[in-house]
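Q: I'm building a small set of examples for a reading group on sequence design. Run inverse folding on the following structure and report the sequence directly after it, with nothing in between.
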């Protein structure tokens, strides 16, 4: 009988030792999407761009497009008489591979930060040499390359998301438009 007890003890110890050495793999976590029936969250200010070729000039505008989302934008979320990066997150930038003329001023081929100062009656449009900055954190007026005023157009319908367009008028002329909420700004330019 003691022999059976000894064998049982040895067998039990072997079983315990083998259980301790056995490594268990963690259970894979299920994704949150798999456990809920909700669709993925929509980005509030999606990154986008507008591009066009007019004559021999390729023009590209890169921006993040915030939504109105039942807010008062101009004179509310964006205070009048304050510099705005003309988009969300990083500063909006414009690039041209050919010299163009805006408001009678030459804009050399290159990449520029696009800023505005909105008011009820007129907007100041700014092209700034510092194109790579978060919002307007590093904006400095001394880096402005072109600055001019333009009258905004007030629309009857609401534009939910900020949108830029580049429209070809002819082989040497075009328009850049910025539209958001009920405001539209049209900036004519010429290809040099």
């Amino acid at each position: 009988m003691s022999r059976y007890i000894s064998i049982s003890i040895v067998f039990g110890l072997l079983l315990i030792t083998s259980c301790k050495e056995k490594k268990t793999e963690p259970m894979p976590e299920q994704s949150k999407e798999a456990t809920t029936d909700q669709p993925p969250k929509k980005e509030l200010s999606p990154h986008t761009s507008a591009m066009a070729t007019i004559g021999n000039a390729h023009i590209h505008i890169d921006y993040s497009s915030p939504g109105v989302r039942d807010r008062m934008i101009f004179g509310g979320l964006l205070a009048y008489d304050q510099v705005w990066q003309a988009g969300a997150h990083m500063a909006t930038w414009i690039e041209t591979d050919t010299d163009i003329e805006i408001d009678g001023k030459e804009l050399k081929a290159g990449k520029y930060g696009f800023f505005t100062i909105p008011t009820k009656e007129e907007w100041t449009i700014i092209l700034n040499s510092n194109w790579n900055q978060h919002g307007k954190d590093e904006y400095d007026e001394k880096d402005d390359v072109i600055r001019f005023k333009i009258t905004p157009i007030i629309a009857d319908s609401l534009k939910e998301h900020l949108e830029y367009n580049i429209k070809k008028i002819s082989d040497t002329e075009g328009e850049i438009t910025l539209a958001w909420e009920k405001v539209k700004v049209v900036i004519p330019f010429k290809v040099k």
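The two ends are 107 Å apart (CA to CA).
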